[in-house]
Design a protein that fits this description.
5-stranded parallel beta sheet; 17 strands; alpha/beta; 6-stranded antiparallel barrel; single chain; SH3 type barrels
Amino acid sequence: MRVLAAMSGGVDSAVAAARAVEAGHDVTGVHLALSAKPGTLRTGARGCCTVEDSRDARRAADILGIPFYVWDFAERFTEEVVESFVGEYAAGRTPNPCMTCNEKIKFEALLEKAMGLGFDAVATGHYARLSVVDGTPLLRRSRDTGKDQSYVLASLTPEQLRHAMFPLGDSWKSEVRAEADERDLAVAQKPDSHDICFIPDGDTKKFLDSRLGERPGNLVDAESGAVLGEHTGVHGFTVGQRKGLGIDAPAPDGRPRYVLSLEPVSGDVKVGNADHLGVTDIDATRPIWPSEQPLPAPTECRAQIRAHGDTVGATAEVTESGVSVRLAEPMEGVAPGQSVVLYSPEDEGDLVLGSAVISATR
């Protein structure tokens, strides 16, 4: 097969490309330039799309003996990922930009261009297992559950998964680094990237303030309705947040307060104690089913709402607007804008059944 290897400049994508070559595929490496000003992306251990990363990717491609290109996706990245991120926070939701990047950039824009150039598949260094049985994609957790990235890949469509390759799915991270050493890849011990690549200093609130400006509102006690303070914008908060609320006086019972809900129209940020954080019912929209078949109703499953969060038992049912999920036990910090990913309770709970974007909780 003709395979386009997405090479971020890290050890995972370099080894994934190497394995695609070793498997006998005709491999071409590509690095995605995602910023018109690379200095605005994180660098060193905290980056994934910088100039130094593109150089690391090129050196790895040279060692593997494969053609290598840098493709400029900066404009589309800004529109699909950065502006979407800002808009979601302005609307009082909590997005996952890495999930959006996988969906809109790596497996929509990149795959679209790859297919147009005659490639059969795109290979990445994600930790997830993928197989296609009778034309049906089966996306599963990786063998190394600590590095598993099936959650952030769960928004991919069946057609995208049919043209995807995840060569690291059956490996442990330690094995990948050891293999990179054996292949003399300079990135063998390069630290993993983390956090949000387009926020250079890691200060999300400051970044959002620079884009959205001040949008004053009140901090309101969810039970009494009393105004406890003021804030400069709902985009500075997320459900479940405890620190940085800006409330001078402690709660009457001495217990810490948490953000319970955000109301962008009125500007109210509702706060209360931890007893009110638990969520048992989730409504979600834009469901995606890897098998192309919606869940039979109702379906027993395991639900996960964060990339590396725990799962809980749940019952999911398709609705007119998307999917409804009832959790067997309360989960905290569940916010609109996050994605709920559903896993099969069988097979050690590693098979992705589907995903959807949370619109409301109760």
